[in-house]
C-alpha cells in the first residue's frame, strides 16, 4: 500500500508575529503550493534524499544557487525530526508501534524561506503519513503542538504555533494563544472562520528575499525574554489587531480589515529591521491602493485588492521588481 499525504502553504492575515508570544492571529491556507509525502512499506526504514539534499554539484555556482534557493539543509532533517517526534509521542501515549518499516520521500512546491511555511508543511505531511501507516490517531487540536515541537525542540528553530494550526485545520482560522490557557492545555483556542467572508486577497513574493524565519525573529525573542517593555507592548498591540480583524470579517467590514493589515506591518517595523527590498514589496502594493503586510517573516506579502483592474495592475507592477503575484486558493 502506498500512502500519500499533503500539507499546504499558509499566509497570516493579522497578528503575526505575536503567535510566538502568547498573542492572537488570523491565518489562511494557501493551496496554490504544498508539500507531498509518499510512504510505503519496505524491509528497512529509508528516507530518500531529494535534489536539495545531495552534496554533489556541477560547479561552485550551482552550489551557490542551490543554497540561495533552498537553504543549507534541505528537507531530510525535517522528515527525520518528524519521525523521531512521532515515535516519542507514541511512547508517551503508551502506544507500541508494530514492527514495520517504510521508505519515504518528500517533494514541495512551496517557495522556500519567503514566509509561506514550507518547512512546517513537510513536517505535517510527514506526521500525517506516519499516522496513517501506523494507524495512530493524533487529536486534531494537539497536532499543531506536536508539529511545532519538531522544529523547536529537535532543530532549534524559533517558531510559533500559528503556521501549524492553519496547516492542520486549513481554511481560515482565528487563533488565541492565551498564556494561561496554552500552558494548561498544551494548545490554544482555535476558531474556524467561513472562508466566504474573506475579501479579495493577493500574495506577492520574491524568492531572492528568502531567509530562515527563526533568524529574523531571534532578536525580538531575546528582547522579549529580557522584558523590554516596548517590544512586549508592541506585540500585544499586534495581537489585538487579530481580534479586531475577526470582528471586521464577521461584519463584512473590508475597509477596516484593510486598515488593520496595514497597521500590522507598521507596528512590526517598530520592533524589527525591515530590509529595503521587503519594504519595496509593501510600497508597490500600497501605491496601487491595496493593503499589504508580511505573510510571515518576510519575502512575501498579503493584502486586500479591489477588482480585476487593480489585480492586473499589481501583477504588472510586481513583475517590474521581479516578484510574482498569486490569488491564494483557500478552498
Automatic annotation (TrEMBL):
Coiled-coil region list: none
Keywords linked to the UniProt accession: ATP-binding, Kinase, Nucleotide-binding, Transferase
Keyword ATP-binding belongs to the record: yes
GHMP kinase C-terminal domain segment(s): 248-305
InterPro entries assigned: GHMP_kinase_C_dom (IPR013750), GHMP_kinase_C_sf (IPR036554), GHMP_kinase_N_dom (IPR006204), Glucuronokinase-like (IPR053034), Ribosomal_Su5_D2-typ_SF (IPR020568)
Pfam families documented for this protein: GHMP_kinases_C (PF08544), GHMP_kinases_N (PF00288)
Record-annotated GHMP kinase N-terminal domain positions: 78-171
Record carries keyword Kinase: yes
Classification via SUPFAM superfamilies: GHMP Kinase, C-terminal domain (SSF55060), Ribosomal protein S5 domain 2-like (SSF54211)
Gene Ontology MF annotations: ATP binding; kinase activity
PANTHER family named in the record: WITH PUTATIVE URIDYL PYROPHOSPHORYLASE-RELATED
Name of the molecule in the record: GHMP kinase
Biological classification of the source: Bacteria, Pseudomonadati, Bacteroidota, Cytophagia, Cytophagales
Amino acid at each position: 500500500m502506498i500512502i500519500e499525504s499533503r500539507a499546504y502553504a499558509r499566509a497570516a492575515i493579522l497578528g503575526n508575529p505575536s503567535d510566538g508570544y502568547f498573542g492572537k492571529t488570523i491565518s489562511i491556507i494557501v493551496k496554490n503550493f504544498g508539500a507531498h509525502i509518499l510512504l510505503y512499506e519496505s524491509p528497512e526504514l529509508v528516507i530518500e534524499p531529494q535534489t536539495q539534499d545531495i552534496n554533489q554539484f556541477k560547479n561552485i555556482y550551482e552550489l551557490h544557487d542551490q543554497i540561495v534557493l533552498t537553504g543549507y539543509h534541505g528537507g531530510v532533517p525535517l522528515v527525520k525530526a518528524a519521525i523521531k517526534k512521532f515515535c516519542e509521542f507514541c511512547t508517551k501515549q503508551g502506544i507500541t508501534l508494530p514492527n514495520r518499516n517504510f521508505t519515504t520521500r518528500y517533494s514541495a512546491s512551496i517557495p522556500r524561506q519567503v514566509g509561506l511555511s514550507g518547512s512546517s508543511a513537510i513536517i505535517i505531511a510527514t506526521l500525517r503519513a506516519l499516522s496513517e501507516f501506523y494507524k495512530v490517531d493524533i487529536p486534531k487540536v494537539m497536532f499543531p503542538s506536536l508539529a511545532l515541537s519538531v522544529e523547536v525542540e529537535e532543530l532549534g528553530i524559533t517558531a510559533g504555533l500559528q503556521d501549524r494550526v492553519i496547516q492542520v485545520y486549513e481554511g481560515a482560522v482565528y487563533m488565541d494563544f492565551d498564556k494561561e490557557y496554552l500552558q494548561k492545555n498544551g494548545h490554544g483556542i482555535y476558531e474556524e472562520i467561513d472562508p466566504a467572508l474573506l475579501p479579495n486577497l493577493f500574495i506577492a513574493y520574491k524568492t531572492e528575499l528568502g531567509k530562515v524565519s527563526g533568524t529574523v525573529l531571534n532578536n525580538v525573542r531575546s528582547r522579549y525574554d529580557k522584558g523590554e517593555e516596548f517590544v512586549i507592548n508592541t506585540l500585544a498591540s499586534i495581537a489585538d489587531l487579530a481580534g479586531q480583524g475577526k470582528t471586521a470579517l464577521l461584519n463584512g467590514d473590508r475597509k477596516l480589515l484593510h486598515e488593520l493589515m496595514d497597521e500590522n506591518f507598521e507596528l512590526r517595523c517598530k520592533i524589527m529591521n525591515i530590509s529595503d527590498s521587503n519594504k519595496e514589496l509593501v510600497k508597490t502594493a500600497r501605491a496601487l491602493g491595496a493593503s499589504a503586510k508580511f505573510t510571515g517573516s518576510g519575502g512575501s506579502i498579503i493584502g486586500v485588492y479591489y477588482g480585476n483592474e487593480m489585480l492586473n495592475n499589481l501583477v504588472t507592477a510586481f513583475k517590474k521588481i521581479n516578484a510574482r503575484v498569486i490569488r491564494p486558493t483557500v478552498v
